[in-house]
């Protein structure tokens, strides 16, 4: 017996692909949409655009400032209308522009770089806000103070919630920047105390 008898995976196909007539005889309904006369969508698709329904589409006038804007490499140009509320700037802008310029939207690297750029943007704003005298109010903004009045332990452990594992990491994920800053200050203080 040859190895071809033992496995369905062989280097060369052992038989030609079946013809359309053979497939039609063997599989009920095979090729039912090959003839355009049998396809219900063909008459609708072949009509002139908007002739029957009155629908129309005209490309709107392009918004000013489109040149140099970030866009996916799949698209030839920027859409006629785009947002300008948060222009890319600083280190986060460099990372995000690289994601748009280098990677397709179908690649994980594109989206991961956008997430990294977003995290860099958050860290940058936290530092600049602290330097301007308006640091984040951790106790107010994270909802830690409300934990003592809303029965946090009973709400998490005494129910059928499945996200309890995430709640152990949520404070770390939300406040990693502050934890890193506090850790850095502790390291600096300990080193100075050891030198004395």
The count of β-strands is: 0
Write the H/E string, N to C.
Answer: HHHHHHHHH
Sheet with most strands: none
**Poorly predicted runs:** 1-7
Note the overall shape: elongated
Q: How many helical elements?
A: 9
Q: What percent of residues adopt helix (DSSP H or I)?
A: 40-55%
Alpha-carbon distance between the two ends: 83 Å
Radius of gyration, Cα only, in angstroms? 30 Å
Beta-strand residue fraction: under 5%
Give average pLDDT, whole number.
76
Class based on secondary structure composition and strand pairing: mainly alpha
In brief:
The protein has nine helices and no strands.
How is the secondary structure organized here?
Elements: H1 3-6, H2 20-26, H3 41-46, H4 90-102, H5 108-131, H6 138-141, H7 152-157, H8 164-174, H9 176-195
Question: What does this protein look like?
Answer:
This protein is mostly helical and 196 residues long. It has a domain at 88-135. 48% of the residues lie in helices and 0% in strands. It has 9 helices and no strands. Helix 4 (90-102) packs antiparallel against helix 5. Mean pLDDT is 76; it is low at 1-7.
Keyphrases for this structure?
48% helix, single chain, 0% strand, disordered N terminus, 196 residues, 9 helices, mainly alpha, elongated
């Amino acid at each position: 017996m040859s190895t071809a008898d033992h496995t369905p995976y062989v280097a060369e196909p052992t038989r030609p692909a079946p013809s359309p007539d053979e497939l039609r005889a063997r599989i009920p309904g095979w090729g039912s949409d090959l003839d355009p006369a049998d396809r219900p969508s063909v008459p609708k698709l072949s009509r002139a655009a908007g002739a029957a329904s009155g629908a129309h589409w005209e490309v709107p006038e392009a918004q000013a400032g489109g040149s140099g804007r970030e866009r996916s490499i799949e698209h030839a140009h920027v859409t006629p209308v785009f947002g300008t509320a948060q222009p890319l700037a600083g280190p986060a802008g460099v990372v995000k522009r690289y994601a748009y310029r280098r990677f397709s939207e179908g690649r994980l690297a594109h989206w991961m770089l956008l997430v990294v750029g977003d995290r860099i943007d958050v860290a940058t704003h936290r530092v600049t806000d602290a330097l301007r005298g308006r640091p984040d109010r951790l106790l107010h903004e994270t909802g830690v103070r409300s934990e003592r009045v809303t029965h946090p332990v009973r709400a998490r452990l005494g129910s059928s919630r499945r996200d309890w594992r995430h709640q152990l990491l949520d404070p770390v994920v939300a406040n990693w920047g502050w934890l890193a800053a506090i850790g850095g200050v502790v390291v600096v203080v300990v080193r100075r105390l050891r030198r004395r």
